[in-house]
Each structure stands twice: as structure tokens, then as C-alpha cells.
């Protein structure tokens, strides 16, 4: 085990001890717990580079989807305001023998849906739900009100820019399930990519009007693995079939797990430079601690103790955000603000566990024995594989002409902007457009740098780990520019 392993071990072990206290942060909590097991001394997790499993797209994989699209149409979600776009929700079977099915929620564009691209959004974990975070708390058209039973319309929903598909993946996450319970013990990056791919080819059969549409994948956090791995699987299968089975044009990942060594080093450097931990602690953790070894100097333990104390009373997913002080539902909905309520995870959990909501969503049709959770309690304990880096995949995409954007909310302390900068530096790309401020609504939305080969890096100013939750306007501008393939605006005036 190398240096990187040690750092991962420390940071993630510590986080898992106290993060349970903070609502709405479960996504990172799961990631941290997972990273701990990934790098422990006797780890069983395969950390070698990713390679796709070949999926022969024939009638064993693609099933008839006749009539299923109309069955999936959602008339109206409970407590939902009136809207003029279509919503669908339902299951796609990806393994008939095992009885494994993934749940999706799909919102068509608010206008010109026939022309708009198709965008798949994935959340991380491993094991966290894109319905919980992506759809209900970040970029979907609605937000759950504080009463836990009604919805409010979001002003900056991404379905102004695309037809947006949210997928709960892998099986065991959210409403997605397998009838073969041993499936939950064989999860991992490779199986997730293959299952997501099988989902997509079947979903496109159910919604054939999207088959030839420009297709993009975006996601955050541990989806820094899922998104590139699915993209690689798509490219690989297109190549092997010698035809465009899926018309993938680009990927975008935010506050993403990219390269464990730089991700970890960047975390401590970020926390020190943002005056959360001392420079001494960051330096000691980065240079003195060696967790491949059982015996570490006292200096290392002191640094860790300091670090635990320093971060334990703040929301590390958005270092300047208030905490959820009263997680009770309210009898009447509180007035919504542009920035998400820190207790929103509680509202979403209440809403998605309501029987009438599940019925409207066409979810939980097999009456699962456990509650719906934003991050799965059942799958990640036996995660089989997780490469230590996904940089080779990013290089592959650039070489194949895919658009690749990496964004970062600059107040996240879990996969901070410093980590992302270190990881991009590791890619050795030459600069095409030097670092510049980009504008949204008369203000700096963040900073951007464009690299030769087709990679754009963009920060989003004053956004935490879940960027669209904290800066919905800037996030919508970001996705629009990504999908249009246009540079982020260099001047205050909007083009
Ligand atoms: C649907 O509503 C949105 C915003 O409310 C509006 O911009 C759009 O033009 C409407 N589309 C149709 C087809 O009426
Ligand atoms: C799982 O089992 C239930 C109950 O037998 C069945 O209704 C359902 O269709 C099965 N799921 C899949 C994906 O085959
Ligand atoms: C791939 O398809 C193209 C166009 O259909 C054809 O010209 C080419 O020979 C095919 N290549 C292989 C390896 O089958
Ligand atoms: C960390 O400890 C292991 C086990 O004792 C040792 O093999 C390795 O060389 C050490 N690494 C560093 C960077 O000191
Ligand atoms: C939340 O609800 C519980 C149970 O009804 C109650 O005991 C508690 O005082 C409430 N908390 C706040 C901060 O109002
Ligand atoms: C599914 O439905 C059952 C029965 O209504 C309920 O007890 C369970 O919490 C639900 N589970 C999920 C994951 O939605
Ligand atoms: C990056 O570039 C440096 C200097 O040109 C070279 O030594 C190094 O091997 C390169 N690293 C990668 C990952 O390509």
C-alpha cells in the first residue's frame, strides 16, 4: 500500500465517525465509509484499472418494451404544482433470471423536447440515489416542501436544457432491487457499469424517439467513477458492434472522485488553506502518517485528533453552510429560498416513503421489506472493485473526441476544488484558454480553464458538494454551456 492509501484511510475513517450527525450529508458519509474499507490493510477491493465487460446487444439483453412507456407515464405526483412537461417513472429489468430491475425517473424538457438532448444524471456513494439527490434536491423540476408531502417548482431545473433521466443504481439503491439477494454482495464498479449499460439499451427501446438523440452523462462525487465507466462501456460496445448503439457526445462530472492520491492530498491542503485545520495538521497528515504501517508516530495521531475536532462541528459538504437545526417536518410548508434548506434530506425521505408517492411513481411495486433510503444500507459493504484512478478513461474520451467537463463547487470540503485541480494537473494537458472568471447574471459564477484535447474545468463559486442545490442559476448556466459546447461567458453581458 502506498502513501495514497494511507491518506485515504485516515480521512475516511475519521469522517465516518461523526458525519452521522449531519443531515443531508449521507452521500459523502457513505463514500467515506467505503473509502475506508477500500484502503484498509487487508482490503478485498480490486483497485486495478477499469475495463468494460462486453455486452452483446441482442435479444438476450434487449427485451420487448412494448406498451411500457405509456404505463410509466406519471399523471401527477402527490402535492405537485401544475407543469406542462411529461414525467415518467418505472422499472427496467436488466436480469430476468435474477429478477434484477433498476428504477428510473424521467422528466422531459420544458420546451422543444424533440430537439433537446438526452441527459443521464448519476449520484455517487457508492449506493446513493439519483432520485433523492439529483432529482429532488439538486437539478430536478421539484423540491420537496418542509411538510414532507407537497412539492414546489424549481426555477432553475435542468429540464430547461435537456430531457433529464435519473437512475437509481446499482440494484439495492433506492427503489432499484434484485430478487436474488446475493446480488447485493457482488456489487462493484464493473457490475454497475454493465448494469447501467443494459438499463440504457432497454430504456432506449422503451423510448425509441431518443435512440438517435445526442446523449450526455453527468454526475457528482463517486459518479466520478460511474460516469466515465459507463461512457467507456458505451464507446467500447459501439466500437465492437461497429455502429452507434448509443449516441454519446460527452460527459460532465462535479466534485468528483477522480484519482485517490490527489483527491486525498487536496482535501487536507484545502482544509488548511480555508483555515479549518492547521497547516501543521495538514502537513503532518500528508508527510508523517503512514497507514500501511501499524506503528505511526504520536505526531500523526495528534494531527488526526486535531482534524477530527476541527471538522466535526461544520457541514463538511459545504463549509460555510448552516446545519440542520430542527429536522422535524412542519405542518405547513415553509417558504423556499433559492439555496436549499439544510434539512431538505429529511423532507425528501418523508416524501419518497409515502405510499401514495410510491404508487404515483410506479415504484416499490414488489413491496420491498425495507424503507426507501437516500443512500443504501445494504450494498456497499461488499463492493468488489474500485480503481484508484479514472484518469486513463478521461484521456481515452479526449482521444475519441468526446466533450469532457469537470466542475467543482468551491466550498465543498469532501472532494474539494484543490483535489480536482491536483487531479487535472496529473493529466498533463496543455492549456488552450488560460484561467478566467466566467459570468452569470452579472456576477462571477466561477472560474474556468480550457485544455487542449477538449477538457473544460470550471469552478462554481459558493457552491458545496451538491452544486445545483446551492447555486441553481450558475449550475443551469454551466449545464447549458456544456450541452451547447460553448465556452462559459467571459464577460458580464450574457451572449
Ligand atoms: C411550459 O412552461 C414553461 C415555463 O413555465 C414555458 O417556458 C414553456 O414555453 C411552456 N411550454 C409549453 C409547450 O407550453
Ligand atoms: C421479483 O419478484 C416479484 C415477486 O415474485 C415479481 O413480481 C417481480 O416481477 C420480480 N422482479 C423481476 C425484475 O423479475
Ligand atoms: C463498419 O461499418 C462500416 C460502414 O457500415 C463498414 O464500411 C466497415 O467495413 C465496417 N467495419 C467492420 C470492421 O466491420
Ligand atoms: C509505510 O509503512 C510501510 C510498512 O511498514 C513501509 O513498507 C513503507 O515503506 C512506508 N512508506 C513510507 C512512505 O514511509
Ligand atoms: C421535534 O419533534 C419531536 C417529537 O415530536 C419533539 O420532541 C422535539 O421537541 C421537536 N424538535 C424541535 C426542535 O422542535
Ligand atoms: C415498499 O413498500 C412496503 C410496503 O408498503 C414498505 O413497507 C417499504 O418501506 C417500501 N420500501 C421501499 C424501499 O420503498
Ligand atoms: C507528464 O509529463 C511529464 C513531463 O513531460 C512526464 O515526465 C510524465 O511522465 C507525464 N505523466 C503522464 C501521466 O503522462
UniProtKB/TrEMBL annotation:
InterPro entries with a match to the protein in the record: AB_hydrolase_fold, Peptidase_S10, Ser_caboxypep_ser_AS
Localization per Swiss-Prot or TrEMBL: Secreted
Entry keyword set: Carboxypeptidase, Disulfide bond, Glycoprotein, Hydrolase, Protease, Secreted, Signal
Listed EC numbers: 3.4.16.-
Signal sequence interval, chain numbering: 1-24
Gene Ontology molecular function, alphabetical: serine-type carboxypeptidase activity
GO biological process: one example: proteolysis
Any single GO CC term annotated in Swiss-Prot or TrEMBL for this entry: vacuole
Protein family (similarity comment): Belongs to the peptidase S10 family.
Annotated protein name in UniProt: Carboxypeptidase
Organism encoding this protein: Lupinus albus (White lupine)
Amino acid at each position: 500500500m502506498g502513501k495514497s492509501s494511507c491518506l485515504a484511510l485516515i480521512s475516511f475513517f475519521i469522517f465516518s465517525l461523526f458525519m452521522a450527525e449531519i443531515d443531508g450529508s449521507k452521500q459523502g458519509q457513505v463514500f467515506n465509509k467505503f473509502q475506508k474499507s477500500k484502503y484498509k490493510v487487508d482490503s478485498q477491493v480490486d483497485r486495478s484499472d477499469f475495463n468494460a465487460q462486453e455486452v452483446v446487444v441482442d435479444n438476450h439483453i434487449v427485451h420487448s418494451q412494448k406498451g411500457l412507456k405509456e404505463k410509466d407515464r406519471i399523471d401527477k405526483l402527490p402535492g405537485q404544482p401544475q407543469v406542462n412537461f411529461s414525467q415518467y417513472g418505472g422499472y427496467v429489468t436488466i436480469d430476468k433470471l435474477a429478477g434484477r430491475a433498476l428504477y428510473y425517473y424521467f422528466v422531459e424538457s420544458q420546451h422543444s423536447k424533440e430537439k433537446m438532448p438526452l441527459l443521464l444524471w448519476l449520484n455517487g456513494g457508492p449506493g446513493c440515489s439519483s432520485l433523492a439527490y439529483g432529482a429532488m434536491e439538486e437539478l430536478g423540476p421539484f423540491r420537496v416542501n418542509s411538510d414532507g408531502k407537497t412539492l414546489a417548482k424549481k426555477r432553475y431545473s435542468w429540464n430547461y436544457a435537456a430531457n433529464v433521466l435519473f437512475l437509481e443504481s446499482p440494484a439495492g439503491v433506492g427503489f432499484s432491487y434484485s430478487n436474488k439477494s446475493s446480488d447485493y454482495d457482488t456489487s462493484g464498479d464493473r457490475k454497475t457499469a454493465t448494469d447501467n449499460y443494459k438499463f440504457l439499451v432497454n430504456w432506449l427501446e422503451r423510448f425509441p424517439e431518443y435512440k438517435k438523440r445526442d446523449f450526455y452523462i453527468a454526475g457528482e462525487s463517486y459518479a466520478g467513477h460511474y460516469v466515465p465507466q459507463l461512457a467507456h462501456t458505451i464507446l467500447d460496445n459501439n466500437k465492437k458492434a461497429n455502429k452507434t448503439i448509443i449516441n454519446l457526445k460527452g460527459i460532465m462530472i462535479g466534485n468528483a472522485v477522480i484519482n485517490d492520491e490527489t483527491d486525498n492530498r487536496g482535501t487536507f491542503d484545502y482544509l488548511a488553506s480555508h483555515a479549518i485545520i492547521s497547516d501543521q495538521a495538514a502537513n503532518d497528515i500528508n508527510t508523517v502518517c503512514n497507514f500501511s504501517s501499524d506503528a505511526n508516530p504520536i505526531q500523526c495521531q495528534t494531527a488526526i485528533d486535531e482534524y477530527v475536532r476541527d471538522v466535526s462541528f461544520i457541514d463538511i459538504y459545504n463549509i460555510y453552510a448552516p446545519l440542520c437545526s430542527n429536522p422535524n417536518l412542519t405542518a405547513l410548508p415553509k417558504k423556499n429560498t433559492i439555496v436549499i434548506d439544510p434539512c431538505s434530506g429529511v423532507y425528501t425521505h418523508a416524501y419518497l416513503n409515502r405510499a401514495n408517492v410510491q404508487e404515483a411513481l410506479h415504484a416499490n411495486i414488489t413491496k420491498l421489506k425495507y424503507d426507501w433510503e437516500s443512500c443504501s444500507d445494504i450494498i456497499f459493504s461488499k463492493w468488489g472493485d474500485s480503481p484508484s484512478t479514472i484518469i486513463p478513461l478521461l484521456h481515452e474520451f479526449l482521444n475519441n473526441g468526446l466533450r469532457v467537463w469537470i466542475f467543482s463547487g468551491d466550498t465543498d470540503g469532501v472532494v474539494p476544488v484543490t483535489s480536482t485541480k491536483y487531479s487535472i494537473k496529473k493529466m498533463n494537458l496543455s492549456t488552450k484558454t488560460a484561467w478566467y472568471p466566467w459570468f452569470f447574471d452579472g456576477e462571477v459564477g466561477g472560474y474556468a480553464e480550457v485544455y487542449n484535447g477538449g477538457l473544460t474545468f470550471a469552478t462554481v463559486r459558493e457552491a458545496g458538494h451538491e452544486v445545483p442545490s446551492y447555486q441553481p442559476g450558475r449550475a443551469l448556466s454551466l449545464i447549458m454551456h456544456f450541452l451547447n459546447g460553448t465556452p462559459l461567458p467571459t464577460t458580464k453581458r450574457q451572449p
